[in-house]
Write a structure and sequence with these properties.
The complex is a heterodimer of chains A (147) and B (780). Chain A has six helices and two strands, in the order H-H-H-H-H-E-E-H. By secondary structure, chain A is mainly alpha-helical. In chain A, strands 1-2 form a two-stranded antiparallel ribbon. The radius of gyration of chain A is 18 Å and the shape is elongated. Chain B is mostly helical. Chain B has 32 helices and four strands. Chain B has helices at residues 5-32, 60-83, 90-109, 113-131, 138-169, 174-180, 190-204, 213-216, 222-231, 236-248, 252-274, 279-299, 303-334, 350-364, 370-384, 389-395, 398-415, 434-452, 458-467, 483-502, 504-512, 515-519, 522-544, 549-571, 584-602, 606-626, 630-656, 670-692, 698-711, 716-724, 726-756, 766-774, and strands spanning 40-42, 45-47, 52-53, 56-58. In chain B, the strands form two sheets. In chain B, strands 1-4 form a two-stranded antiparallel ribbon. In chain B, strands 2-3 form a two-stranded antiparallel ribbon. The longest helix of chain B is centred in the first third of the chain and has 32 residues, at 138-169. Residues 1-8 and 759-780 of chain B have low confidence and may be disordered. Classes of the chains: A mainly alpha (147), B mainly alpha (780). The interface between A and B is large, with 54 and 46 residues.
């Protein structure tokens, strides 16, 4: 169905895809201290998937999503967020009380936290779930059903 | 049974006998208490927070009810064993009957109102199962549903009454409520509480206007009809009223409600009995009449009424249950219950004829039967009752009721067994097995025995009557001495009854011509109401869930405008914040927003419309950005971008499939314009009013102070989302994924529809069909 692809558009998307994804990750990780976060990051990543679908078909876009399927991606996101609260339970604190560690990198100390896992879960869930909607709608005229 | 041979017969006997142990145990319990044993009570907390105790109390009235449950129950169990001999469903029937028996025992011995309600509803549910026992018949299923809806609905009313009574008395213990009852007579809630209890009892005991379910419940097997619908379950309403009589009998409304209610029910039921040709339905209507008489007697003041209620409860069970058995035997032996086709059955069915004669004598109230003593007690109760003349006059309608009762007894005992049916031929008939004629003969025979030797049941009845009477000293039952006082009225009833019997066919034809009675058929009205309910609901759903998005929006915004507008009018105009000159960026953002909105109103194509609405989104994102909400602006930009891309792609693809439906004509729609202007004005006023109130900074200050210190984050918004309110966020992302899972089938259906309707059948607007099927199908 998607035979009428424009060469210009596809090459444009090919160049844009990775930078958009990187930007989405950057937005995800800067979110704690500057505007951004998992929700916005997920939306930006979704933009990447959507333009890829427009250029190369939804099937291809879905294959490029984490875990290869929108629903699975969203489910893993929710589970990751859920799991990020468990360490607090093990330490006897309230569920989702986030812990911070300093990770030595040699030249500097990198602060890491369960909150990052939580935000990454939000990121995956937004990307997967909204991607499920968007790609299904974009792909309504495609021959192969892509679950 | 015949095919099974003798061993099968023995097996029938053994299993039935095992089940019959249950009523036998109840009877044994009654027997130990015949000599006026003291009241026994037992209580154990069950749900103390709600005031529900497993409290049971065995007094005179409970013992009398237990005697009915056990005595008639024993006959019913044996009869059922014969009635369903060789039938695989017999065990199911016996199990259901046993459960019913337990529920009845619980109901009449419960000393906690909520516990009583529980057993009460249990009897309704089991009645549903038993009436619909022949579940392959549509009529049985309909009757079962009707019985359940009427008695179950009445049960809910009873629950309301029970809760009110419990609230008023401060306890749900029945004995305590009855003690405190006279003190509650002036309570403002008492009329509501007792009214609700009355409705509950009226549905259970088939009082007007809920009487119609009882004759329809006759599609149940005969043992069930004899047990539930004449001897026990329908007496529960009577039982509860009798139980509450000592507490609330002095309330003025008690008499004013129950006496007319009972009289009306009895008279009406007897008129309807004359219209029937089916023996079982005739008996059913006369049962309704007897129940009406019992309600009337409970309504009457005086000690004599209590005696009469006790006597009539017993007498009615002792003759009506055998008559139902007789009807079942006749049906079994001849294949019909229509009285026109029956006659001279005494030759073929001698034992059934004997049972019918014994029961009929008692029902007619002939001397030397227990029915006679009960009638005498009723007459003297009415004579001694000191009450309004009008109510007494109403109570005299019982002469008519008694006359038709005599006639019904004669129909059951004389007409079909002795008289020739005229031109109709007598059907081929055979006598039924002993399991089916021994119970009615014994029960009816016991009724005769009590008539000659009333001392046998006197202590039982005295104890019951004492429990139904307010005051420390109850009445003393002295059966058999009322003869001289009441013989005249009884003779009148008898003669009138014989006259009705002699003219039965003529009266029947006369009443059949009265079309008014058919128009007043409440059963049909109830059924058409039941049918109208889902139809009305479907019509309403079609009106509200039409599947047209503009319609939903109009309803939503219209409702919001009206509700909030009314609120604004009531509260007066809010104070507005002082004027602030906006900076250039804000003005620019607002202009972008307005341009998009105005453009959207005037473009006639879908794609430009989408872009215009995207402009509105970007404008508001700009506004957020410069109003100090960068996160929100960021999100808005991203959402708007994704939405426009996806929607545009969708529109282009639909257009390529030639299935995009054009926009409706661009004409000015005044209602929509008014709605838009109204909603816009309202929201603007609301926002201004909100801004006029100074913001309480406590929450913002707290988060600002704690975000970095506790959560190591500078972006307060994000820290709130992932840390302070992390659980909320977890819930939200779960909702997101669940919404996708729920939408998945719709999306798949959409794809299928689009593909099915792709280029070949392009012109047929498949997308409209697709949205109909996927979107419009959801509410159903």
């Amino acid at each position: 169905m998607n035979a009428r692809r424009s060469v210009m558009f596809t090459s444009f998307v090919r160049g844009l895809y990775l930078p958009v994804l990187v930007a989405s990750l950057w937005i995800l990780f800067r979110g704690h201290n500057a505007p951004g976060g998992g929700f916005i990051g997920g939306l930006v990543a979704l933009v990447a998937s959507v333009i890829w679908a427009l250029a190369f078909g939804t099937e291809a876009a879905i294959r490029r999503m984490p875990f290869g399927q929108p629903v699975r991606c969203a489910l893993c996101g929710v589970l990751l967020s859920l799991a990020s609260g468990v360490p607090a339970l093990l330490r006897g604190e309230a569920f989702l009380t986030h812990a911070w560690f300093e990770l030595p990198l040699g030249f500097a100390m990198l602060p890491v936290s369960t909150v990052m896992a939580f935000d990454a879960g939000v990121y995956l869930c937004v990307w997967g779930a909204l991607g499920g909607y968007a790609l299904a709608l974009i792909g309504i005229d495609e021959a192969e059903a892509s679950a | 049974m015949a095919a099974d041979g003798a061993p099968g017969l023995r097996r029938v006997g053994v299993s039935t006998a095992l089940f019959a142990l249950l009523p036998l145990a109840v009877l044994a319990l009654v027997a130990t208490r015949m000599a006026g044993a003291p009241t026994v009570s037992f209580s154990m907390p069950w749900v103390p927070q709600l005031g529900v105790d497993l409290a049971f109390r065995l007094d005179g009235l409970a013992t009398l009810m237990l005697a009915l449950v056990g005595g008639i129950g024993l006959g019913v169990f044996v009869y059922a064993g014969g009635y369903f001999a060789g039938d695989l469903r017999r065990t199911r029937l016996l199990v259901l009957l046993s459960l019913f028996l337990v529920a009845m025992v619980g109901c009449v011995t419960a000393d906690n109102l909520l516990l009583l309600f529980l057993f009460w509803e249990l009897t309704s549910l089991l009645s549903f199962q038993l009436v619909g026992f022949h579940r392959e018949q549509a009529s049985a299923r309909g009757a079962a549903r009707q019985a359940l809806l009427v008695t179950g609905g009445g049960g809910l009313c009873l629950l309301v009454g029970v809760l009110l009574l419990g609230r008023m008395a401060g306890t749900y213990s029945m004995s305590t409520i009855i003690e405190r009852g006279p003190g509650l007579l002036d309570h403002p809630l008492l009329p509501f509480a007792l009214g609700a209890v009355f409705i509950g009892c009226a549905t259970k005991s088939a009082q007007f206007p809920f009487h119609f379910w009882l004759p329809n419940a006759m599609s149940a097997p005969t043992p069930v009809s004899a047990y539930l619908h004449s001897a026990t379950m329908v007496k529960l309403g009577i039982y509860l009223l009798a139980r509450l009589d000592p507490a609330f009998g002095d309330w003025p409304g008690w008499e004013l409600t129950l006496v007319p209610l009972g009289s009306l029910t009895a008279t009406w039921a007897m008129v309807l009995a004359l219209r029937e040709r089916d023996l079982k339905r005739i008996l059913a209507w006369s049962t309704v009449g007897s129940l009406g008489t019992l309600v009337l007697l409970i309504g009457l003041p005086g000690d004599g009424a209590a005696v009469a209620v006790a006597c009539f409860l017993l007498a009615h069970a002792l003759y009506k249950a055998p008559l139902f058995f007789v009807a079942g035997n006749v049906d079994h032996g001849t294949g019909t219950r229509v009285i026109d086709r029956l006659g001279m059955l005494r030759r073929q069915m001698p034992f059934t004829a004997l049972a019918a004669a014994l029961a009929g004598v008692s029902m007619a109230g002939l001397p030397l039967s227990f029915g006679f003593l009960a009638k005498a007690a009723m007459k003297s109760a009415k004579l001694e009752a000191e009450t309004h003349a009008i109510l007494l006059a109403v109570a005299q309608s019982s002469v008519f009721v008694g006359a038709v009762g005599v006639a019904v007894a004669a129909v059951a005992a004389v007409r079909i067994f002795w008289r020739h049916p005229g031109v109709n031929e007598t059907p081929v008939a055979h006598e039924v097995g002993p399991a089916m004629f021994v119970p009615p003969v014994l029960i009816a025979g016991f009724g005769m025995l009590c008539g000659v030797w009333p001392q046998l049941v006197e202590p039982l009845l005295t104890a019951a009557a004492v429990d139904m009477t307010p005051g420390p000293h109850g009445p003393v039952v002295q059966l058999g001495i009322a003869w001289s006082a009441v013989w005249a009225t009884i003779a009148v009833t008898l003669i009138a009854g014989i006259a009705v019997f002699a003219n039965w066919d003529r009266l029947h034809a006369l009443l059949g011509r009265v079309t008014l009675l058919e128009r007043l058929d409440l059963a049909r009205g109830f059924e058409s109401l039941l049918k109208a309910l889902p139809e009305g609901a479907a019509r309403l759903t079609r009106r509200l869930q039409h599947g047209r998005l503009p319609g939903y929006f109009a309803l939503l915004f219209g409702a919001a405008v009206i509700a909030l507008g009314a609120l604004g009018v009531l509260a007066g105009l809010p104070s507005l914040p002082p004027w602030e000159t906006p900076d250039l960026v804000t003005v620019g953002a607002a202009l972008t927003l307005c341009t998009g909105a105005v453009l959207a109103c005037f473009v006639g194509e879908r794609l430009p419309l989408l872009l215009a609405s995207g402009l509105v989104g970007y404008g508001s994102a700009l506004l957020f950005l410069f109003a100090g909400a960068p996160d929100l602006a960021f999100t808005q930009f991203a959402v708007e971008t994704v939405f426009v891309i996806v929607a545009a792609s969708l529109l282009l693809k639909l257009r390529r499939l030639h299935s995009a439906v054009g926009l409706p004509g661009r004409r000015l729609r005044p209602v929509a314009l008014l709605l838009a202007l109204g909603f816009g004005t309202l929201m603007a006023t609301l926002l201004l009013a909100v801004n006029a109130v100074p913001l309480d900074p406590a929450l913002a200050d707290w988060f600002n102070a704690h975000a970095l210190a506790d959560a190591h984050g500078l972006n307060v918004v994000n820290v709130i989302i992932v840390d302070f309110r992390g659980l909320d966020t977890l819930g939200e992302i779960s909702v997101v994924i669940f919404s996708l899972l729920a939408a998945w089938p719709l999306l798949a259906a959409l794809r299928t529809c689009v593909r099915a309707g792709s280029p070949a059948v392009a012109a047929a607007q498949p997308s409209a069909r697709a949205t109909d099927r996927s979107g419009g199908g959801a509410p159903r």
